[in-house]
Specification:
The protein has 706 residues and is an alpha/beta fold. The chain folds into five domains: 104 residues, Beta-grasp domain (Ubiquitin-like (UB roll)); 75 residues, Roll (Ubiquitin-like (UB roll)); 151 residues, Domain of unknown function (DUF4445) (Nucleotidyltransferase, domain 5); 189 residues, no CATH class; 118 residues, no CATH class. The chain is 28% helix and 22% strand. The strands form nine sheets. The protein has a six-stranded mixed sheet, with helices on both faces. A hairpin with a 4-residue loop joins strand 1 and strand 2. Helix 8 crosses helix 15, helix 10 packs across helix 13 and helix 11 packs across helix 16. The longest helix is centred in the last third of the chain and has 25 residues.
């Protein structure tokens, strides 16, 4: 750059400017000014990553007149690129456009390395792409008798000369060294290398290679979910999930730890099972979009502490008893091959940090995704699963705890429960006068009382009730008076409806009864339709225990934070994100909050893994944040049991629910002597229609794709 001489170049949106010698390329000018302009091919007109848009017209603010004519005309390289891949008429390749006059150059988002991303499809906050893996194409000098040094030394020199990388600091994987000479020969001494975190060369290809992929994985105790993404632009190419095969060793986490304790080699079996599932997931994602697994260079993972230890091959037994010590709570960096994933040897893996005890990397991922540490309002973030992880706070202070909710919310321990799959009842409404239900199943947009429901569910049948359906049916039964505040199915309701039936010494509510032949499935992989589904007293108790544990954990954090209410509740996880906010409050799943500020956060843990996959800065950010999170151990807190007992009632034994009472008419709360006590909130007799309107309004806003 020459001060006061040569054409003036101004880059937008960065605003950086400078004068350069006539004939300087736009890419060179950008590099010298530190402008964020991408390139893989090193300025050879091959990759197309450095596309720019020259400004046209007068720009008084900058004091210049800019025109595309101030750049060199399109040459053969740009014509060839346009023929092969297409180049818009208003765009130029920065590496081929030479500057011959004052020019304003716009760098579009897709040409920036650290581009701002607003994700579509996968719900994720805005963040800046800052890939840990970068691709560099270089031309390596050929060896001669006069310069017989090693090819690796010449590759180092080329990387320093063409890309200003610190050649002496670079480490080369042995696999890359082995592949170096064949790649040089095949590429006529032009090769592309992948550099991880600016330190290690982890892959090499002959010629130009411009694709680097990664996979973000949430290792849940029930489901393992993954996203395959392009590391250059953050595009999510495929998403999928598989069941965690460790379920056969135990549905809940402590059962799996017990298996490791009681069986020689049990932990090894558990590790093998989960790694096989990870390998299957990664392979399936690549096959789904037809990409080469060798292009997958980075894996990020989140999971609760026990999943974290088992994936990494660490003994989980110390997590089964106090003080629940983690082998490591920091981030883990290793190779994908070490985790037995079927990827190239140099592919890397990054496990987000854990927080402590039973608050793991999945909680860290959820925090990174939802950023409560950047807000002034008090946010309650709950990842609802077999082991619920709870985070409470704001930018001033964050606390976290885990609560053993068990698998009831995911359909286990429920007589008609099942996982969320086509055919599962996911939405339920009960008429408060007739006590007749209507419901919707996954795979159909119709309610059971609508014309066409039978046809729309012909292939799936009605096979069970998934977690969101269980929450709704029990909340609806409570609002209808079938279930009392203490969780008892009221047998006197049998006089009002034949759906309330004796069941031994208790009663059950018949939610669904198939008509002969009407609900048979015709697919080989469908679950068999159940002829009858009833909500039993044991089902209600299982949900009471689960919701009381979750509420008690949240209330305990509120005690430590010194607050009596929260501003926002975010429900995360495969199950949590499907819960209807109104029914969650009616059930007493979480503390009272404005209904319109209780909502789904999606798979926040998996989203956090995706952000960490695409941004090195995000990794550093969450590594710093988790060190500030205060872990509250519920197992040693005296008040946890007190909160738990009070939370067994629907929605709660003692807590006021002003926001819930403003949205729905609640049954009277029972006092110690059994006398009905009106709830705070609306006065006057119950208004069933008013409740129905309020409920349908809230529910309509939350219903979407299952």
């Amino acid at each position: 750059m020459t001060a006061g001489a040569g054409p003036l170049v101004i880059f937008t949106p960065s605003g950086r400017r400078g004068r350069f010698e006539d004939g300087t390329t736009v890419l060179d000018a950008a590099r010298r000014l530190g402008v964020d302009l991408d390139s893989v091919c090193g300025g050879r007109g091959l990759c197309g990553r450095c596309q720019v848009r020259p400004g046209e017209g007068e720009f008084p603010k900058h004091g210049i007149t800019s025109t595309g004519g101030h750049l060199s005309p399109r040459g053969a390289d740009e014509a060839e690129y346009d023929r092969l891949r297409g180049l818009a008429t208003d765009r130029r390749l920065g590496c081929r456009a030479a500057i011959h006059g004052d020019i304003l150059v716009d760098v579009p988002p897709e040409s920036q390395v650290h581009r701002q991303v607003v994700r579509k499809g996968v719900p994720v906050r805005d963040f800046v792409i800052d890939p840990v893996v970068r691709l560099y194409e270089v031309e390596v000098e050929r060896p001669t008798l006069e310069t017989p040094g090693g090819d690796l030394a010449r590759l180092r020199a080329s990387l320093q000369r063409e890309w200003s990388l610190d050649a002496d600091a670079l480490e080369f994987d042995l696999d890359v060294v082995r592949a170096l000479q064949p790649a040089l020969e095949a590429g006529a001494y032009r090769v592309t290398v992948a550099v991880h975190d600016g330190q290690a060369v982890i892959a090499i290809w002959p010629g130009l290679h411009d694709r680097a992929l990664g996979v973000a994985i949430d290792v849940g105790s029930t489901t393992i979910a993954g996203h395959l993404a392009d590391l250059a632009d953050g595009a999510v190419l495929a998403s999928d999930g598989v069941m965690n095969p460790q379920i056969r060793f135990g549905e809940d986490l402590m059962s799996r730890v017990s298996y490791a304790m009681l069986h020689d080699g049990g932990a090894v079996e558990l590790t093998r099972a989960v790694r096989d599932a990870l390998a299957s997931l990664v392979t399936g994602l690549a096959e789904r979009v037809g990409v080469d697994r060798d292009d997958i260079l980075e894996i990020t993972l989140v999971g609760n502490p026990i999943m974290h230890h088992l994936v990494l091959g660490i003994d989980p037994i110390p997590l089964g008893s106090a003080p629940f010590a983690l082998a490591t709570d920091g981030p883990v960096r290793t190779t994908a091959r070490e985790l037995e994933l079927p990827l190239r040897p140099g592919a890397r893996a990054y496990f987000l940090p854990c927080i402590a005890g039973h608050v793991g990397a999945d909680a860290a991922g959820a925090i990174l995704s939802q950023t409560p540490y950047l807000r002034d309002e008090i946010t309650l973030l709950v990842d609802v699963g077999t082991n619920a992880e709870i985070v409470l706070g704001s930018r001033a202070r964050l606390l976290a705890a885990s609560s053993p909710t068990g698998p009831a919310f995911e359909g286990a321990q429920i007589s008609c429960g099942q996982r969320a799959a086509p055919g599962a009842i996911e939405r339920v409404r009960i008429d408060h006068v007739t006590l007749e239900p209507r419901f919707r199943v996954i795979g159909s947009s119709r309610w059971s009382d609508e014309v066409g429901f039978a046809e729309s569910t012909r292939r799936t049948g009605v096979t069970g009730v998934c977690g969101s359906g269980i929450v709704e049916v029990i909340a609806e039964l409570f609002l209808a008076g079938v279930i009392t505040a203490d969780g008892t199915i009221d047998g006197s309701m049998a006089a009002r409806s034949p759906r309330v039936v004796p069941d031994g010494r208790t009663y059950s509510y018949v939610l669904y009864e198939a008509t002969t032949g009407a609900d048979a499935t015709d697919t080989a992989d469908a679950m068999p339709a159940r002829p009858r589904m009833a909500i039993t007293q044991n089902d209600v108790r299982a949900i009471q225990l689960a919701k009381a544990a979750l509420y008690a954990g949240a209330r305990l954090l509120m005690d430590h934070l010194g607050v009596d209410s929260v501003d926002r509740v975010e429900l995360a996880g495969a199950f949590g994100s499907q819960i209807d906010p109104l029914h969650a409050l009616v059930l007493g799943l979480v503390p009272d909050a404005p209904v319109d500020r209780v909502g789904p956060a999606g798979n926040a843990a998996g989203t956090g893994a995706l952000i960490a996959l695409l941004s090195g800065e995000a990794r550093r950010e969450i590594e710093g944040v988790v060190r500030t999170v205060e872990k509250i151990e519920t197992a040693i807190e005296p008040r946890f049991q007190e909160h738990f007992v009070d939370a067994m009632a629907f929605p709660h034994k003692t807590a006021s629910m002003p926001h819930l009472a403003a949205a729905v008419e609640l049954p009277p709360r029972l006092a110690v002597g059994g006398e009905a006590v009106p709830r705070a909130g609306r006065s006057g007799p119950p208004n069933r229609r008013r409740h129905a309107v309020a409920a349908s309004t809230v529910v309509a806003s939350s219903e979407g794709e299952p």
